[in-house]
Design brief:
mainly alpha; 0% strand
Length: 84
């Protein structure tokens, strides 16, 4: 017996925008465009400065940007910042 739902299941390689890019990835790529290959170092410095200024939310945001482009460096940074 056939199901009454005749829609095909979503493809595993569905290219829906939300599946490919979330806000963190979009911002990380935008900032990468602005800073080039120095972007990850910029994110790390910004995260350290934000945490030193007591702005944990901003530090975590920059850490997330770093993780979007260089997960290994983000893990080291999280350890250095005492957040990981």
């Amino acid at each position: 017996m056939l199901s009454s739902d005749t829609r095909a299941p979503a493809a595993a390689n569905d290219n829906a925008p939300d599946a490919l890019f979330d806000a963190v990835q979009q911002n990380a790529l935008r900032l990468f465009g602005a800073h080039g290959v120095a972007a990850v170092s910029h994110f790390a410095a910004a995260a350290k400065a934000a945490l030193a200024a007591g702005n944990r939310n901003a530090a975590m945001r920059y850490l997330a940007y770093c993780a979007a482009l260089d997960p290994a460096k983000a893990r080291r940074l999280a350890s250095d910042l005492g957040t990981g």
